[in-house]
Amino acid sequence: MTTLQQFTARVTAGEHLVFDDMLAAAQLLFDEQSDQQQMAQFLVALSQKGETAHEVAALATVMKSYALDVQAPEGIYIDNCGTGGDGLSTFNISTTSAFVLAGGGIPIAKHGNRKISSKSGSSDVLEALGIHTLATIDDTLALLQQEGIAFLYAPNVHPRLKRIGEVRRAIGKPTIFNLVGPLTNPVPLKTQFVGINRPDFTMEYASVLQMLGRERAVVVSGARGMDEASLEGQNTFVLVDNGDLIPFALRAEDAGLRETPLEAIRGGDAQENAVILRELLDGKQSAYFDTVLLNSGIGFFAYGHASSVKEGVEMARDSILSGRAKQKLEAVIAFSDKLKREGAHS
């Protein structure tokens, strides 16, 4: 049997691992007996070589096999979780967009985590809003059934991630796990919108989504490698449409929005980002607002609700200005409060 050190040596020499080899290496990463330093060396070597579509798909396959079984209510769900790791300290765009998509009638099962390589991960901002992230799987599914939106906290559904999380924190830089996170939602997905921090990898990532059975999906990388669509510069996209992978590019103006530099959407810690999110859902106009319109618009397009990103942007605007997106936020907070109260009495 090949050891993790042997795989590391091959990767360090510049060899791309074929799917089956990466499956074997991934099993070693998830083996509770594997040495954490060797795990770190392998992940760093992969990152320095540059990961391939087969390596990402194989790791996603193994990670998902260890996830808890989540029996989601029947429906076509979308996840809009990005890879993180872009180092740009923006606010929580995809978490905010999740409420906008849900307000527009799209069932959303968002996979997320605490901050690992950012100031505020999705779970951090949800807690700052008063949304309890440690709900059980049953509670999560009840929320999904009731409101058409739920947040799956990665460590809750991936019990084997604890040791890997320790290794990732020790590395302190993005690894292949950033790329794999959005691919391992335990809720079955036919459609997805993923922002990645590598414009050169959008086509490979789209082919991974296709390998993993997505019928329709959109991959985007924004300006300066932002793992969301940006109002600044040109966004690089690939649309997965059944058997086809269709690359395209889009600027803010193409979707009827103003070009704005990334500095205008800097975030802060979880508390500051929660304030930004609330004000935005109240309809406060800003670069934050427009960024969420763009990313939610792409979500509506990825789901097939909108025939273009521009049409999706108008659906997003309507979801916010009608108050429906804010109602979704309040409904999720109320659900969480009820669970807390029941927990206190039990």
TrEMBL record:
Residues 77-325 form the Glycosyl transferase family domain. One of its GO terms (biological process) is L-tryptophan biosynthetic process. Gene3D superfamilies: Nucleoside phosphorylase/phosphoribosyltransferase catalytic domain, Transferase, Pyrimidine Nucleoside Phosphorylase, Chain C. Keywords: Amino-acid biosynthesis, Aromatic amino acid biosynthesis, Glycosyltransferase, Magnesium, Metal-binding, Transferase, Tryptophan biosynthesis. One of its GO terms (cellular component) is cytosol. Its cofactor is Mg(2+). It comes from the Bacteria. The keyword Transferase applies. Pfam families: Glycos_trans_3N, Glycos_transf_3. Binds 2 magnesium ions per monomer. Residues 6-66 form the Glycosyl transferase family 3 N-terminal domain. Pathway: Amino-acid biosynthesis; L-tryptophan biosynthesis; L-tryptophan from chorismate: step 2/5. Its EC number is 2.4.2.18. It catalyses: N-(5-phospho-beta-D-ribosyl)anthranilate + diphosphate = 5-phospho-alpha-D-ribose 1-diphosphate + anthranilate. Anthranilate 1 binds at residues 82, 113. 5-phospho-alpha-D-ribose 1-diphosphate binds at residues 82, 85-86, 90, 92-95, 110-118, 122. GO terms for molecular function: anthranilate phosphoribosyltransferase activity; magnesium ion binding. The keyword Disulfide bond does not apply. Anthranilate 2 binds at residue 168. Coiled coil: none annotated. Mg(2+) 1 binds at residues 94, 228. Belongs to the anthranilate phosphoribosyltransferase family. Catalyzes the transfer of the phosphoribosyl group of 5-phosphorylribose-1-pyrophosphate (PRPP) to anthranilate to yield N-(5'-phosphoribosyl)-anthranilate (PRA). Homodimer. This is Anthranilate phosphoribosyltransferase. The lineage of its organism: Bacteria, Bacillati, Bacillota, Bacilli, Bacillales.
